[in-house]
Amino acid sequence: MRATSPVIVGRDEEIGLLSSALDAVRRRSGRALFLLGEAGIGKSRLVGECAYRAYGLGMPVLRGRATSTGLVVPFRPLAEALASRFRAAGTPTDPELAPYHPALARLVPEWRREGSPGYPETVVELAEALLRLLSVLGREAGCTILLEDLHDCDTETVAVVEYVIDNLADLPVLFLGTLRPEPGAALDLVRSAERRHVATVRELGPLHDAQVRSLTGSCLETGPAEIPESVHRRLAERASGNPYLLEVLLADLLDTGRLRRTDGGWEAVDQPDGSIPSDIVRSWARRLERLDEPVRDLLLASATLGSQFSVTVLQTVTGFEDRALFTHLRSAVEAGIIAPDGAAPDRYTFRHSLTAEAMISSVAPAERASLARRAASAIENSGQPLDEDGRQLVASLQLAAGNRAGAARQFAAAGRRMLASGAHGSAVVLLERAHPLADEADRAAVAESLAVARAEGGDLDGALALADALPPVPARSEAAGRRGRIHVELAWAAVMAERTADAALQVEAARVLLGPAPPPGRRAALVVVDGYLALLPGHGRPDRDPVETEQTVQKAAETAEAEGLPVVACQAWQLLALLRREEGFDAADAALERMLSISTDHSLPVWRVEALVRLGANAFMRSGDASRLLSARAAATDLGALRLTRTVDGLLAMNAVLCARWEEAQEIIDRSAEASARVGDLSAHRYLLLTGATMAAHRGRRRDMDRALAAFRRAGGEQSLLVPLRAGLCRAFSALLEEDRERAAAALDEALAWELDHPSYYYLSGRYGLRPLLRVLAGEADRTELEEARAAPGGCLAWNRQFLELADAVLLGREGDPAGAARLMDFFALRSGPFPVAHHLGLRLVADAARVDGWGDPVAWLRTAEEFFYGAGVQPVSTACRAALRQAGASVGQHRGGWDRIPSPLRSSGVTPREYEVFVLLPERPGNQQIARSLSISPRTVEKHMASLLSKTGRADRAALCEYAAECAAEPA
After folding, report:
1. Is 414 exposed, middle or buried (0-12, 13-18, 19+ CB in 10 A)?
2. List of residues 6+ apart from 214 with CB closer than 8 A
């Protein structure tokens, strides 16, 4: 007889907390809650109550549970949660989720594409995709995701949960998780979340005496006062306030007739205390004894497999025919011991995880071991290939049977398969299980696999520590070859993490093990890693021979192809594409086309998109056209390669900045910068921050640039390959828009000095365009220097070519060839068309030289530039153009407008456009003479404007006025 309560007893405070959280989610204020407590304490009942209330509010509810069988199944609770929603409501069709379908395909089978190998997304990318999905589901009424038994879940799920709860604050999502207070990754997460105030944690304690009585009355459908005192006393003592144990013990009393209903109410039948079960194990032993023997055998076999089990596996173990099997399963369901698993039609689950544990504990240890041994043997000899789950199950059974070495082999095999599939966290868990169980002969191999799993899972420190602790192997032996491969893989992980010293140590360790003549494939992999290592800041070798380096990498690429190592070949051709930029972009593109061909032929989708992205980047740099980049982004999105998508977004944002499409650039930065920071994609994040700084610089907003560059520094930008762009593309341009050519030249010299000390293949720093122009204008460079810049690979890029045309025109004008100079200005007009700011700045820069040397139409150029920069709000250049026009004897019209550029508070105070021109210079605290020179007015006029500004703004003195101007400049326009 079953004895369950139809209502929740003793959890009013927790129910109130859940209700409050649901209300907050409806107001778009996300919440994360964790219920912590021992098995049977009532966590699942509260989850059910939360689901019931969420349904009542019209919220989508997603509910999943970790497996308690001991199997490591990556993302099992998340996949089950999504399936619980989409099975009934269908998958969402919102277009904004389309880019995330490939990343979520691991959880949503409907989004898997036939014939596509898919993208091995990182856990963080999957978590970001899940966050977007939950946000869309909760758009109208909020959304609730319920994950139970997190103590049993895989590390990948724990990582996703951590990411989700850290980013819920402004989303209409309630996350509710349950777990036991058992040491592990899940409990560590909960404690950390509680300390960081990103989640509320409620620990469920046992019911007190009155609540035990109330729960018993609810189960028996009677008032608490009607419960026999002896029954209450026994339940209170035996269950210790645990609701589940109370219900099980109460069911035992009812089944044995020691508690029965009479006309006068409930009556207890006195029996000696010794006949009463002393704990839950004895209770289940008694229940098993009352079952038919075939049903008992089936339940014991099921419990041996865990609290959840597959019908197919159970049939393999028991040997029952279909009819007998399902007859016995039906009997067990009717007895209230097991139930069909709603998440999978082939699976059943015990009503509570304690049930399976208690049932298997009710038999003698020798019988338990025998059951496990027979089950493992039946599964291994079934003739069916074992997948990861099957290997883990067999390993658990072997361990229960006392076969530690056999268990280690199965755990290790499952871990290596997880590693190959990209489930690094689960691979680590399984290999860590295998390591202490393995025989001495196998332990080193397990440790090697574990080191690689840790490295690829992001724990490079743990991987390196494990590698250092490996026992030595004879040099140039088979074991040394295997160990050398491990060191090469760790070196690659260190290079990707930009940990130069660690990568160098691993490369050296591999060389020692492999000897002076390693196998061709190993040598190729070493060459590639060493080549990438040489490009990192702090490890470049100025004395290296570029030709020899390129030839070595070329041979490595060909060797990798011949040895059947397509990934190493792609790595090599990608490196060659960088090295060959020094020969020209045609040679670089040829290497990328080879990389594209190999990745396509060997079905390596990530490397294929890598090639497309780099080809698109080269095309953008050569022509300013972003069409191939857009195609590459579409391919990355289609694959679900979110990291590559963010990389392309950074390049597209920079393209928009150089083309002065400010709103487009800002939209991309807003969309991707925060996401790249959340997922720890520092490379993309730094580039997006630098792009934001470049946009501020090209709009003449130095304070905004400085703020963006400060964020760039905090993200480690000063230790990246982007340093010359920071100096040349940001600071130099900013100085020119402030009419400070000396500061611009210093920034360009800084960029050049960095590039001379470090290998650099990024050519927009000014070295091959803007710097030669400024040096020609200053009389510091001749045609020889110009031709050197033009002949370099960077000289063919569209952005640089426009400045080189201007420098050439200036030199021709000085050489007495005005027609040739004018012809080059026509070419400049064509080349600079996509780049409005650079075009008008170029006109401003060469106008003075053209006027002095008597060529071109400098007055028209100055008028065009003045109008552009005045409209753009870049006052220093606009003012300088007006001053140059006066020096040329040209008339200068007054801008009678300009009121729209004055902030409302100043406009309402009566500040005029001319006074505002003075006001915007004050954050830098210039003197009157400096202001006069900048605006081409007299110091006396500056004094008048200053006095008027002090009066109109109500500031006490000049310092206060300058401070106010700085505050206004800091506010967004």
Report:
1. buried
2. 9, 10, 224
- The owner of tokens 């569209």 is 798
DSSP H helices in 70-208: 76-89, 101-104, 123-137, 155-166, 185-195
Residue written as tokens 């051709």?
A: 573
Instruction: Judge whether residue 32 has pLDDT over 90.
Output: yes
- In contact, 544 and 552? CB cutoff 8 Å: no
Q: What is the mean pLDDT of the chain?
A: 86
Phi, psi of 459 (to 5 degrees): -95, 70
Both tokens of 463, joined, read 């991987």
For residue 538, the SS3 value is coil
**Tokens of residue 329, six digits:** 């399963």
* Long-range pairs of 392-397 with CB within 8 A, sequence gap ≥ 24: 392/70, 392/71, 392/72, 392/430, 393/69, 393/71, 393/305, 393/306, 393/313, 395/433, 395/434, 396/69, 396/70, 396/71, 396/306, 397/304, 397/305, 397/372, 397/373
Name the least confident of 370-384, 428-442, 665-679, 851-865: 665-679
State both tokens at 562.
């011949």
Cβ atoms of 179 and 190 within 8 Å: the answer is yes
Share of the chain above pLDDT 90, in %: 39
Backbone φ, ψ for residue 200 (5° rounding): -100, 130
Single-letter code of the amino acid located at 751: A
Residue 536 vs residue 967, higher pLDDT:
967
DSSP state of 198: S
* DSSP letter assigned to residue 726: I
Q: Listing from the earlier edge strand, what are the strands of the sheet with 143-148?
A: 61-65, 143-148, 173-179, 31-36, 200-203
Phi then psi dihedrals of residue 335, to 5 deg: -80, -5
pLDDT exceeds cutoff 80 at 116 = no
* Per-residue pLDDT at 279 exceeds 70: no
Check the CA dihedral 835-840-845-851 and report its sign. Answer: positive
- 500-509, pLDDT tens digit by residue? 888 889 988 8
Q: Which residues contact residue 257 at a Cβ distance below 8 angstroms, ignoring those fewer than 6 apart?
A: 269
Q: List Cα–Cα distances, 555 to 143, 513, 524, 532, 609, in angstroms.
A: 56, 22, 8, 15, 24
Calculate the alpha carbon distances from 116 to 426, 604, 638, 688 in Å: 24, 10, 10, 30
Say how far apart CA 800 and CA 137 lie, in whole Å.
Answer: 47
With b meaning 16 or more CB within 10 Å and e meaning fewer, what string describes 600-635? eebebbbbbbbbbbbbbbbbbbbebebebbebbbeb
pLDDT of amino acid 356: 78
> Residue 713 — pLDDT band, cuts 50, 70, 90?
very high
pLDDT confidence band for 679 (50 / 70 / 90):
low
Residue for token pair 């509910």: 63
Residue 655 pLDDT greater than 50, yes or no: yes
Lowest mean pLDDT among 64-68, 293-297, 399-403, 803-807: 64-68
Task: Give the separation between CA 806 and CA 788, rounded to whole angstroms.
Answer: 15
Q: Which amino acid is at 448?
A: E
DSSP state of 727: I
Residues 696-710 as b/e (b if ≥16 CB within 10 A, e otherwise) read bbbbbbbebbeebbe
Whole-model pTM: value is 0.65
**What is residue 272's predicted lDDT score, i.e. its pLDDT?**
43
Q: Is the pLDDT of residue 785 over 80?
A: yes
CA-based nearest residue to 730, from 689, 766, 691, 697: 697
Q: Alpha-carbon distance 741 to 734, whole Å?
A: 10
